[in-house]
Amino acid sequence: EVQLVESGGGLVQAGESLRLSCATSGFVFDDYSIGWFRQAPGNEREGVSCISASDGSTRYADSVKGRFTISKDNSKNTVYLQIKSLKPEDTAVYYCAADEAAATCSTGIKDYDYWGQGTQVTVSS
């Protein structure tokens, strides 16, 4: 059974940092790209970052470039999202998702096959 489990969210103050984790199992880790998405109340779910299975290349949404960093640990089948200088507008449920390997990863929701349950990030001003 394919599983993705997010962790690391919480209540933080603006300007602080968090590292989110996505622990995966049930598939060949190196054959899938992993994306991070977020959804705030009343908003559409948006892709924020992804990392490609083929070569580890990364992509970021314009809104998070310079503050978010995606990485992975192949030995642990885990993907991380490091977030610095958190802002109130970063408040959302953050999800990770897995997609069959492609030349480069995508931040499009429809490209992903498996999803975690999400972890809440709340940023106070």
Key attributes of the depicted protein:
125 residues; mainly beta; seven-stranded mixed β-sheet; four-stranded antiparallel β-sheet; 11 strands; 0% helix; globular
**Succession of helices and strands:** EEEEEEEEEEE
Averaged pLDDT = 95
- What structural class do the secondary elements suggest? mainly beta
From the spread of the alpha carbons, the general shape counts as globular
The radius of gyration over CA amounts to: 13 Å
Number of helical segments? 0
Distance between the termini: 40 Å
Description:
The chain is globular. The protein is an all-beta fold. The chain has no helices and eleven strands. β4 and β5 (46-51) form a beta hairpin.
Summarize the structure.
The chain is mainly β and 125 residues long. Helix content is 0%, strand content 50%.
